[in-house]
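Exercise 7. Given the encoded structure of a 230-residue chain, write a plausible sequence.
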């Protein structure tokens, strides 16, 4: 008698999982116009959330590869979600009912699996390539420090082999350093605080080679920080 709950518990959990899967499939294959647009809108919202959220987090963790694939998932989902529920699912349902050729019927029977598999392949390719249109540079906004009373105007030039920056105006600054990937590449202690570095020495950011210009006081504390992307 004491072993009865242990026997029935896995069966109950299995029944709950099966019922949840049936409910999910019923929603997936619901084909009324209202449900098509609701499902498409929900997937567009999810895709936009993953895409934007991944870009924001990538500004902090530039080497997190998993974020690129999460961004790719959301980026592709923006178009693939509506494509699936406005075109693919209605076509699969229609072909399952009307197709007579064995090959067409077989394709229709596995149409959703083929569609999802194709989607995952595209996500993997886009996440690996990481095209520029998918990457948004949020680093400048998050990296720029208000700097309190420090007034500075930075100008930078990008050449084929090097980048260089200097301050046109600066108040309360003791020295300026150019860093990339946490490594100091150049330092200047006198106005106009001109610093430069080779492009090959710059680390990769969300949308290209990235470097930082830090304005520091005599104690080495950062007064203001500028983040620039080549």
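Solution.
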């Amino acid at each position: 008698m004491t072993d009865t709950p242990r026997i029935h518990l896995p069966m109950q959990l299995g029944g709950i999982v099966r019922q949840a899967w049936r409910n999910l499939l019923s929603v997936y294959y619901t084909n009324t116009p209202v449900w098509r647009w609701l499902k498409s809108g929900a997937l567009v919202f999810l895709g936009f959330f993953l895409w934007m959220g991944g870009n924001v987090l990538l500004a902090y963790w530039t080497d997190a590869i998993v974020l690129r694939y999460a961004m790719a998932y959301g980026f592709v989902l923006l178009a693939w979600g509506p494509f699936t529920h406005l075109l693919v699912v209605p076509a699969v349902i229609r072909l399952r009912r009307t197709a007579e050729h064995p090959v067409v019927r077989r394709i229709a029977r596995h149409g959703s699996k083929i569609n999802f598999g194709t989607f995952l392949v595209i996500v993997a390719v886009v996440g690996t390539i990481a095209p520029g249109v998918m990457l948004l540079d949020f680093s400048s906004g998050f990296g720029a420090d208000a700097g309190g009373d420090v007034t500075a105007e930075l100008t930078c030039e990008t050449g084929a082999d090097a980048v260089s920056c200097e301050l046109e105006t600066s108040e309360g600054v003791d020295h300026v350093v150019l860093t990339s990937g946490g490594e100091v590449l150049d330092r200047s202690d006198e106005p106009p605080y001109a610093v430069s570095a080779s492009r090959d020495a710059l680390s990769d950011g969300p949308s290209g080679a990235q470097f930082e210009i830090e304005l520091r006081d005599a104690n080495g504390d950062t007064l203001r920080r500028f983040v620039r992307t080549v």
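Remark. The longest strand covers residues 162-171. Students should compare their own answers with the one above.
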